[in-house]
Specification:
five-stranded parallel beta sheet; 2 domains; 15 helices; Rossmann fold; 399 residues; eight-stranded mixed beta sheet; alpha/beta; binds cytidine-5'-monophosphate
């Protein structure tokens, strides 16, 4: 991927400033032009020479520097930029920007910039949690500034909490996704997605189900639509709005999902099984409400048909992608499923150990295929779905 963009990187004075050197490298590697502006305190953490060498341009530090002014004034620098990213953004620069102060080059540039602006905050967790910082961030968001991170973890000051700057690669991914929209990688391809839980009734008022919100499957449907695909979504009961332009088939039980998916799969080039299908369902569904009896009870259940395995056994099979939620030995179990169910790809995630996964806004995925694997870092499910769809399209177009 080539990025034909002008990236203006602002570096303010935080210990995370050294990480921004990597950000310059990542953008340059993809062909973007990068110019760097440093605050005075940033130069105490990392030398301007480092950024000069990596960006291939002198670093801008002074608002009224005669030489730099001649080469590129703060106004022309602001006009030059397709995007301004401040990483790290300290509590001080955040406060200044949120109040429109312009007492140095970086804060002046922010005011002069008409391009999208991104901040990657980095500070001590107590500073991040301070109400005034929160208010400053909210104000900036209201004015259209995009905030990336911060992340949770160990801090240079020895404390633990939210305040670590997001990793350069995550900042890079976030920016490239928004400033350089992808060419539709699944244009006209028919994609079938199953999502959500299933409900296995016991009687007219009770059912067995699992902790699935359907968010990942719905996010995948939206991402596939954005990538140009024609999407059919077979969904268990969820509290989500159906993606516009997707063909939605609502089901309840594992058996209904099986029938819907199998009849659709033959007309689709890709099948993504993101539903949490019940492994077993009660053999007898009582027509009347079951009455309380005795201290214990037993429900006899029948194993459900494996939808994914049956789809991949079709001739010819669609490109088949499964999910695996595991509490232990993630790679071993995921790879075993990949082989046993004859899948083209499997997206695995920890449940219970990492944050995210089931019924959560965020998730991280480890994706495996026969000859490779890729980790997609913890992020919101919309972003994650877009990354996964891109990866699926890459593999699908390769095979
Ligand atoms: O075997 P396991 O349930 O862990 O596999 C998970 C994957 O298999 C998911 O992609 C899920 O949608 C799919 N699956 C299925 N039919 C089942 C059970 C799981 O398609 N009966």
């Amino acid at each position: 991927m080539t990025i034909n963009k002008h990236i203006l990187l602002g570096v303010s004075g935080g210990i995370a400033a050294y990480k921004s050197a990597e950000l310059v490298r990542l953008f340059r590697k993809q062909g973007a032009e990068v110019r760097v502006v440093m605050t005075k305190s940033a130069t105490q953490f990392i030398s301007a020479l480092t950024f000069q060498a990596l960006s291939g341009h002198p670093v801008h530090t002074e608002l009224l520097d005669v030489e730099t002014e001649n080469a590129m004034s703060h106004i022309s620098l602001a006009r030059w930029a397709d995007c301004l990213i401040i990483a790290p953004a300290t509590a001080n620069i955040i406060a200044k920007l949120s109040h429109g102060l312009a007492d140095d080059l970086l804060s002046t540039l922010y005011l002069a910039a008409t391009c999208p602006v991104y901040l990657a905050p980095a500070m001590n967790q107590a500073m991040w949690n301070k109400a005034v910082t929160f208010e400053n961030i909210e104000r900036l968001k209201k004015h259209g500034v995009k905030i990336i991170g911060p992340e949770q973890g160990d801090q240079a000051c020895g404390e633990t909490g939210f305040g670590r700057m997001s990793e350069p690669v995550d900042i890079y991914n976030h920016l490239t996704d928004t400033i350089e929209p992808q060419t539709p990688c699944l244009q006209g391809i028919k994609v079938l997605i199953s999502a959500g839980p299933t409900r296995e009734p016991l009687d007219p008022v009770r059912y067995l189900t699992n902790r699935s919100s359907g968010k990942m499957g719905y996010a995948l449907a939206k991402a596939a639509l954005k990538a140009g695909a024609e999407v059919t979504l077979v969904s268990g009961p969820v509290a989500l709005i159906s993606p516009e332009n997707a063909h939605l088939i609502k089901v309840e039980t594992a058996e209904q999902m099986y029938k819907a998916v199998l009849s659709e799969a033959v007309n689709h080039a890709i099948y993504i099984g993101a539903a949490a299908v019940a492994d077993y369902s009660p053999i007898v569904i009582n027509s009347e409400k079951i009455k309380k009896q005795g201290e214990q009870t037993t429900i006899l259940m029948q194993k459900s048909k494996d939808i994914l395995a049956e789809v991949s056994a079709l001739t010819p099979p669609p490109f088949t992608v499964g999910f695996a939620a595991e509490t232990q030995d993630l790679e071993a179990y995921a790879r075993e499923k990949l082989t046993r169910k004859k899948l083209d790809m499997i997206a695995a995630n920890w449940v219970g150990k990492e944050q995210g996964g089931f019924d959560s806004e965020e998730n991280a995925l480890h994706v495996y295929w026969a000859k490779g694997d890729k980790t997609l870092a913890m992020t919101d499910k919309t972003k994650l779905a877009e990354q996964l769809i891109r990866l699926i399209a890459e593999r699908f177009n390769n095979e």
